Amino acid sequence: MKGNKKNPYLFLLPYLSLFTLFIIVPVLMAIFLSFTNFNTIEAPDFIGFLNYINLITQDEIFMQYVLPNTILFAVIVGPGGYILSFILAWILAQLTRIPRTIFALIFYSPSMTAGIAMAVVWRVIFSGNQLGYANNILMNMGVITEPIIWLQDTRYILLIMIVVALWSSMGVGFLAMMSGVLNIDESLYEAGAIDGVKNRFQELIYITIPSMRPQMLFGAVMAIVGTFSSGAVGVQLTGANPTPSYAGQLMVNHIEDYGFIRFEMGYAAALSVILLLIIYLFAYISKKLFSET
Amino acid sequence: MAFKSSGINPKRFHRSQLKFYIFLVPFSIFMALPIVFIVNHAFKPLDELYAFPPRFFVQQPTTENFRNLFQLAESSGIPLSRYLFNSIFVTVLVVILSIALSTLAGYALSKKQFKGKKLLLEMNNTALMFVPIAVMIPRFLTVSLIGIEDTFLAHILPLIAMPVGLFLIKQFIDQIPDSLIEAAVMDGANDLKIYWKIILPLIKPAIATAAILAFQLVWNDLETSTLYTTSENMRTLAFFMSTLAAQTNVVVGQGMAAVASLIMFVPNLVLFIILQSKVMNTMAHSGLK
After folding, report:
1. Which of A16, A284, B117, B191 has its CA 20 to 30 A from that of A84?
2. Going from the N-terminus, what domains does chain A have, and what CATH number goes with each?
3. Which residue did the predictor score with more confidence, B239 or B53?
4. What InterPro entries is this protein classified in (chain A) (predicted)?
5. What long-range pairs does B118-124 form, CB within 8 A, spacing at least 24?
């Protein structure tokens, strides 16, 4: 356009400089530090793959608790929250406008609380004495006879974290998928009916989902991000890092533990790199699932 | 008889929608319970907070907890208004700057041809999945390296570049026909004028959406307060509130923590209600390919 070739770069410069400084540089730095031994006081000291080797061979807590917890949490909350978001988005799209808006607001609001603001609610509901709401209800129903110390009991911590994370999983991705369903061209459905679509389920599989692949992918990416970000909830619920007997310890907590409690930044960086790789792998799989073929 | 096509976006109520309500109503009650609970809890007087058996709804609402919260902050040396000011100041600046930078970059990425464009888009789309917590350590090092620790800049700068915001805005600008811009160029408008007079007015819904997302991110953010600041009077409301939540076992603390949660949550909710139709409008273009 008119020979002013430098303009696009000028428009991009402010965003790009902050993007580089606070997103690109930290990622590169994490990769670099993961090959060093760094305690924040002395200069980082290059040790090759030792951090990664230690991670696999020495870190019993990681292998025994953190990794299985993270996988269990991610597998349930990620796809679980995603499928739930999609089903709700699809159902809501079949309502009239006003009830749809009201329900959407109710489902979306938990995600606005970002876990942190609501930690207090969960701590009161799952309080460990008979004053706790969960205990009180279950005792009245006769399911249990003695109060359960929910948030310190290693059997329940992860379960409660999953419930809380699922509760707040209807975020931006949910809104995107709802618009996706609403914006599908109606003539596609008519054509489908002529081509022999017999019920809602077939319609969903053959018309709805294929026509909104881009929104499905956006929703999937948001679900992945949400899942790994909400991992911190365990520490907020139990009020301790590490969580009791590592029962609710996820990778993000493990990173925080090593980075800011033990100041082994190099090792924490190696953990971060692994986490980023896991996230990238999930995103890659979703991309393969939903990209236009 | 052929299957009658589904009722997506129906204009009026029909009996066939009833089955959805049978599922949705109980489910939405379950979803809303914690939020209803926090509202009730915030207004409970002390004896109701610790009543046995615990009661869900407040019987005699009181503002006692609100007053206690203000007093507690007062006695710790830093009035609540200081945290509130920090939060509002930081949030407003980040939202404005983030929108300004994302719209500028979005315009260039959507309507301009230049070297490296594809790579930049790819990078931004990858960064969508960027979970800040995964790189909090190098981010912390970056902040101390450029020497903005314990200043307002430490709250503001790291949060401005928001890949999701840029992504949504760029997708929305893609919908603006090129002919509109070409016509403006014919009339002698320069890039800045096109950006200001054509692009910005047309992408208001996307701006509103990016603003909400930025608001939620910054308003609830704990990272900057916990890691990048050291003095108490530089910290935000979100931080103060999280320290309260940590002491819920202390008597009276529960009520105050509930009040703090409410203060954190209400602005999010109000903003979303005001802007929700614009959000839905933007989300229609949120597809990732």
Report:
1. A284
2. 61-290 (1.10.3720.10)
3. B239
4. MetI-like, MetI-like_sf
5. B120/A12, B120/A16, B121/B170, B123/A24, B124/A19, B124/B163, B124/B166, B124/B167, B124/B170
